[in-house]
Amino acid sequence: MLSVEAVCKTFGGVQALRNASLTCEAGEILGLIGPNGAGKSTLVNAISGVLKPDSGSVRLAGEEITGRGPEHCARAGVGRTFQTIRLFKDLTVRQNVEVAHITCRAVRPDAAKRIGVDQLLQQYELAGFADSPAGTLPYGSQRRLEIARALALGPSLLLLDEPAAGLNEAESETLAIAIEGIRRDVGCATIVIDHDLRFINRLCDRLCVMDQGQVIASGETEEVWRDPRVIEVYVGQSETA
Ligand SMILES: Nc1ncnc2c1ncn2[C@@H]1O[C@H](COP(=O)(O)OP(=O)(O)OP(=O)(O)O)[C@@H](O)[C@H]1O
Question: Which CATH topology does 1-68+157-166+189-241 take?
Answer without folding.
Answer: Rossmann fold (3.40.50)
